[in-house]
User: Which sequence fits this backbone?
């Protein structure tokens, strides 16, 4: 499997670390109710199809949002977390 | 019998090659495969079958071979399951038949063949059922002895393997007419092309079948194209390479036989595991001929017709008198061509009624082979035509049941092929696998002319997708005769007819599976083990499927194929693990003091990737603990020196550095004064402790964060995430400076005195202070911090000076009655003080559990703050950090032990907690432990039973405060 | 007061050496400074430095600047202009790295055993952050036959081992074909 890094271009999977769904970027405010924090920390969809995931390109230090199809395994996009949304 | 004919395009007759098979001296020619050399030496049984131990001969001339698997002597050991059809002969080659004892000709387990009625499909499941007690003692060893092909060598595998990466625009898999034309078209267009071929020689079927291409001998045409390809700098040719898997993103796994054919490989690796990344790929893997399931079809001497032709054309193996049994036009034209070249064709048998043609041999239409005879090899075949049987004497039977496109790679990502009635075979669907298209025979275009045209066409399509312009290319003229067949999957006659030669599966087994309810193709496969041998059923899947369809009354496409998964050909574990053996398994990180601590005799222990000294032995030490106690004494009584460079160091710089650190630490770092150091705690967002360490403010906008050795990478990744995700635009940057600085801990009552020798004076630095210092001309950093509870400093110098600094510090310390201390002593010192490591910070603990809830600021948000306040993460039900002291100070505590009420049984329901770290404290003369105990802080003084079921250790312990030594901390502040 | 003597990252590792057509030699460390412009400050930095490398670039206004990761570049040599600290984080990295030069007509073949990147596609000079086997790597392609390979100082031994093995293997292949 290969993934595109906005800095480095397409690279082999071995250079990346994945921490799961990009929902993790939507951090609740400090005073948000416990339900919001629970959802943020633990509740994830498990999509069969397009998914947005957080990957880290270890060699260059860039965090990415990768758009990937979990059925077809096609990678359809990737942006630096800093530029995402 | 004369066994070499004249000719033979692959061999050099003048160069004889001596080799041994089953202890017998033989001679082959340079260019032979082991299979061709064995055939040329008249060897017929080359191995025994898996279940019935029947003698088996060579069936094919390629990697699909189910029978001719041998053990090959290499690097002093026998390597099992080598396909004799791929193994090239070299002088001194030594091989032996496998799956037989004492020899391939007389094999004791051949008695299994007599037991055949009891060993039918599913016999494992039926026989080895009960009594249950027999499993471990009897059945399993029995199955283990009989199971599997070949024997695993027991010795360490000394052979060299290699891995490599390749990249290209277009990968062409297979170098027959289709592949050659595809590579030529793309090569002329300037595309970066890799052409792989499993065989030693490129060219594919024309090498075996002769014929004409472009008005000349096919072989000559192949050589001319290859010469052009070799001249193109943008084309790489990779012979002896099998593509075995297709993976996501255009990555192909391929195995190259690099030194496997060399008598003296030296440092040449046996195999190379390639990962080829291709923008586009063309599968030009051709087709495999399929056998016909007729009674007695497993007798040595029964071969695929294409193999008979191949051994004749390429290796000049004379098959003697040949009977050809086919069901298609290609079989007849092949027999005619071979006869024209002098092969003795005793008869041509075709199951079709309407076959006619000019031939110098008897042509029997509407006939079938219903039996074979011959003890060690074929002597005659029995023919049935219009209900009447007759016998024909022969040495070889060439089978041709039609051809199956070699399409497995197109299915590696889950797609299914479609049925093509015209050729009675499955073919790939266009677009089945992104970026890969089959062409030529691999998609059912069987004539040479069609293959040549399809290769060009496939290359044109790929070039268009690559944005390259295809050149005009003239199509060479070649044979375009049609290929028609009438399917013949099994000959219905008495006797066992084999489908899967490698795993001994007959048509009867498949029918039995269907009868017993295993009618789905995936169930049948597992019940009969058809297709589960090293050849993965390349010659048997189609036949078994057809017999199953017949038995269940279904159609072949309705029955469907089993799933094709990588690897397409066997890949040795050695190749998969290439590069990762020994030192290649993982990197070693060595400190600047490494050479020196090893020279002092210190055994090294791993901390993450780093190597650190455990202790420094001295002559006469009875055990390691003596050394450890001595080193603890250095620090408690004089001065000790320890290399702490492995701790992670991260520079956090910029106007917003303080603000950022407030967000990632539980405490407030922005209010730390310049020149001060603070202990800090980082949480994960879920409220648990991630790491601890110090944070020093070196300048107004310049902080230095330290992490534990093992967590350095994780912390850096975490900080990068927080910055990039949540702190966009903040004016700061992170930079790892771990490797820039060699940092030495100097600890003990005489630490100041030692520093005076180093710096010229005792620095006036308060506890938890930092200042830049000079060691002569060298700019250094001095921190007054302590992980031992004694007066302690850490002195950091640029790494180039690390080795010398350590050497001089140790010498100075020794002069003061101290010396170097290792990880064992460091661990004792920190346990005595109740300082934490990742033994305690195990990913499950919160700041509250560790008694550090006071470090969590109430005034600001920080990572993990909200979640750490969740119900269940604070309270009496939590496992909390406590100290442990045994009732009897000499009673050894063991880490990992569980704690129970004194009288309660050692059951999980009674568990009170567990021990995280232990040591023997020479300072206090007792064993000490740190443990996590339910509501532990409220239970100081209580007695529990420590129970280590694994090591059989039990003792009584008292819970206490985790700081055992100098709880006021006066010694380190002083 | 003590005096400290310096040692090199590849000390004791017997560089340089050659196998077949490739040679591995150690780079004598010069001053190396990691420059990371603060967000939005790249333009100010460019004014001071005369430029700043984009991903993969090696750039020599006067000092050699090698792109070395997200928003950072390594400057080789002394004489950084004043005032940089107002727009960038600066860290001395002179002792952080172990650098070696791999050269020869088989250099790319050797690296193809260790680096999962298409090095032929890179221009010269250019840089890439990647891995050499399991090692972190800053690679600088100087030409089709010369590569600078930088890893962290503590891993110099592993860098040498991995390269030594790949160089031997490629040389052995050459000898038989
Ligand atoms: Zn990157």
Assistant:
């Amino acid at each position: 499997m290969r993934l595109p890094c906005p800095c480095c271009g397409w690279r082999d999977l071995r250079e990346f670390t994945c921490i799961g769904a990009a929902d993790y970027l939507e951090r609740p405010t400090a005073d948000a109710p416990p339900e919001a924090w629970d959802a943020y920390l633990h509740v994830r969809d498990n999509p069969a199809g397009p998914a947005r995931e957080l990957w880290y390109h270890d060699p260059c230090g860039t965090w990415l949002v990768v758009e990937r199809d979990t059925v077809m395994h096609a990678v359809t996009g990737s942006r630096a977390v800093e530029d995402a949304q | 019998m004369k066994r070499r004919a004249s000719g033979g395009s692959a061999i050099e007759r003048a160069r004889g090659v001596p080799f041994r098979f089953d202890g017998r001296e033989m001679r082959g020619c340079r260019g032979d495969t082991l299979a061709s050399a064995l055939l040329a030496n008249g060897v017929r049984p080359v191995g025994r079958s898996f279940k019935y131990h029947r003698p088996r001969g060579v069936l094919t001339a390629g990697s699909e071979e189910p029978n001719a698997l041998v053990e090959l002597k290499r690097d002093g050991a026998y390597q099992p399951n080598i396909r004799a059809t791929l193994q090239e002969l070299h002088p001194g080659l030594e091989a032996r038949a496998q799956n037989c004892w004492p020899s391939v000709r007389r094999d004791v387990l051949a008695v299994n063949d007599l037991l055949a009625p009891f060993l039918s499909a599913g016999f494992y499941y039926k026989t080895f059922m009960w009594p249950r007690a027999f499993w471990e003692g009897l059945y399993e060893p029995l199955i283990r002895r009989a199971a599997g092909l070949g024997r695993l060598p027991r010795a360490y595998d000394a052979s060299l393997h290699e891995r490599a990466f390749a990249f290209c625009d277009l990968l062409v898999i297979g170098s027959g007419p289709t592949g050659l034309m595809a590579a030529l078209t793309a090569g002329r267009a300037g595309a970066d092309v890799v052409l792989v071929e499993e065989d030693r020689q490129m060219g594919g079927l024309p090498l075996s079948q002769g014929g004409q291409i472009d008005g000349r001998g096919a072989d000559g045409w192949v050589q001319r194209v290859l010469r052009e390809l070799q001249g193109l700098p943008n084309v790489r040719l990779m012979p002896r390479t099998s593509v075995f898997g297709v993976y996501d993103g255009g990555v192909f796994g391929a195995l190259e036989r690099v030194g496997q054919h060399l008598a003296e490989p030296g440092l040449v690796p046996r195999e190379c595991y390639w990962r080829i990344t291709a923008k586009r790929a063309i599968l030009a893997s051709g087709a495999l001929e399929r056998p016909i399931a007729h009674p007695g079809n497993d007798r040595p001497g029964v071969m695929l017709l294409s193999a008979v032709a191949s051994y004749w054309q390429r290796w000049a193996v004379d098959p003697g008198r040949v009977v050809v049994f086919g069901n298609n036009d290609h079989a007849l034209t092949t027999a005619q061509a071979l006869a024209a070249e002098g092969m003795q064709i005793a008869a041509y048998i075709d199951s079709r009624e309407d076959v006619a043609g000019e031939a110098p041999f008897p042509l029997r239409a509407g006939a079938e082979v219903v039996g074979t005879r011959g003890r060690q090899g074929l002597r005659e075949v029995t023919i049935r035509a219009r209900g009447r049987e007759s016998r024909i004497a022969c040495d070889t039977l060439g089978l041709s049941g039609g051809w199956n496109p070699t399409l497995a790679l197109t299915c590696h990502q889950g797609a299914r092929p479609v049925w093509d009635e015209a050729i009675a075979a499955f073919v790939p669907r266009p677009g089945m696998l992104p970026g890969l298209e089959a062409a030529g025979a691999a998609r059912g275009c069987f004539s040479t002319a069609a293959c040549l045209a399809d290769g060009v066409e496939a290359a044109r399509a790929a070039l268009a997708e690559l944005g390259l312009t295809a050149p005009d290319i003239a199509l060479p003229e070649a044979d375009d005769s049609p290929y028609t067949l009438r399917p013949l999957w099994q000959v219905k006659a008495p006797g066992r007819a084999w489908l899967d030669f490698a795993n001994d599966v007959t048509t009867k087994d498949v029918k039995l599976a269907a009868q017993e309810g295993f009618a789905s193709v995936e169930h049948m496969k597992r019940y009969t083990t058809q297709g589960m041998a090293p050849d993965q059923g390349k010659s048997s899947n189609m036949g078994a499927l057809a017999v199953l369809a017949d038995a269940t009354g279904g159609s072949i496409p309705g029955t469907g194929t089993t799933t094709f998964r990588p690897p397409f050909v066997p890949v040795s574990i050695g190749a998969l693990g290439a590069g990762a053996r020994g030192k290649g398994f993982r990197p070693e990180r060595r400190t600047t003091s490494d050479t020196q601590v090893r020279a002092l005799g210190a055994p090294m222990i791993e901390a993450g990737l780093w190597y650190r000294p455990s202790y420094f032995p001295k002559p006469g030490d009875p055990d390691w603990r003596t050394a450890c106690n001595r080193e603890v004494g250095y620090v408690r009584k004089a001065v000790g020196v320890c290399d702490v460079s492995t701790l992670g160091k991260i520079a956090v710089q910029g106007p917003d550095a303080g603000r950022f650190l407030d967000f990632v630490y539980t405490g407030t770092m922005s209010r730390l004064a310049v020149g001060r150091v603070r202990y800090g705690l980082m949480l994960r967002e879920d409220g648990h402790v991630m790491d601890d360490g110090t944070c020093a403010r070196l300048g107004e906008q310049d902080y230095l964060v330290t992490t534990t050795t093992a967590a350095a990478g994780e912390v850096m990744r975490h900080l990068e995430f927080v910055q990039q995700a949540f702190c966009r635009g903040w004016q700061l940057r992170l930079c790892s400076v771990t490797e820039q600085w060699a940092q030495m801990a100097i600890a003990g009552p005489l630490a100041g005195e030692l520093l005076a020798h180093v710096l010229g004076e005792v620095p006036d630095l308060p506890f938890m202070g930092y200042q830049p210092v000079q060691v002569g001309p060298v700019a250094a950093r001095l921190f007054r911090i302590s992980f031992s509870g004694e007066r302690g400093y850490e002195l950091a110098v640029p790494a180039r000076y690390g080795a010398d600094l350590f050497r001089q510090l140790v010498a100075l310390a020794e002069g003061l009655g101290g010396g170097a201390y290792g990880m064992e002593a460091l661990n004792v010192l920190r346990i005595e003080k109740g300082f934490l490591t990742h033994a305690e910070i195990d990913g499950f603990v919160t700041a509250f559990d560790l008694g550090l809830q006071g470090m969590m600021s109430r005034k600001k948000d920080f990572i993990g703050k909200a979640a750490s306040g969740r119900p269940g993460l604070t309270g009496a039900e939590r496992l909390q950090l406590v100290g442990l002291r045994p009732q009897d100070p000499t009673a050894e505590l063991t880490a990992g032990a569980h704690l129970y009420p004194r009288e309660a049984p050692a059951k999980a329901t009674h568990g009170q907690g567990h021990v995280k770290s232990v040591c023997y404290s020479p300072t206090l003369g007792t064993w000490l432990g740190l443990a996590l105990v339910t509501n532990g802080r409220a239970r100081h003084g209580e007695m529990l039973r420590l129970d280590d079921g694994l090591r059989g250790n039990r003792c009584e312990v008292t819970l206490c405060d985790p700081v055992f030594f100098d709880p006021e901390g006066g010694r380190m502040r002083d | 007061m003590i005096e400290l003597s310096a040692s090199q990252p590849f000390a004791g590792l017997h560089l340089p050496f050659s196998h077949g057509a490739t040679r591995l030699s150690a780079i004598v460390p010069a001053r190396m400074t990691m420059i990371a412009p603060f967000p939005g400050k790249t333009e100010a930095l460019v004014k001071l430095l005369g430029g700043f490398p984009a991903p993969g670039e090696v750039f020599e206004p006067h000092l050699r600047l090698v792109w070395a990761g997200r928003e950072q570049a390594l400057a080789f040599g002394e004489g950084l202009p004043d005032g940089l600290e107002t727009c960038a984080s600066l860290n001395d990295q002179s002792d952080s790295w172990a650098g070696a030069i791999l050269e020869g007509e088989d250099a790319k073949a050797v690296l193809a055993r260790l680096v999962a990147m298409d090095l032929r596609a890179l221009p010269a000079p250019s840089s890439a952050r990647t891995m050499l086997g399991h090692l972190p790597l800053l690679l600088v392609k100087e030409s089709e036959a010369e590569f600078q390979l930088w890893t962290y100082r503590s891993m110099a031994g592993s860098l040498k081992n991995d390269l030594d093995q790949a160089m031997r293997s490629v040389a052995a292949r050459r000898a038989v074909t």
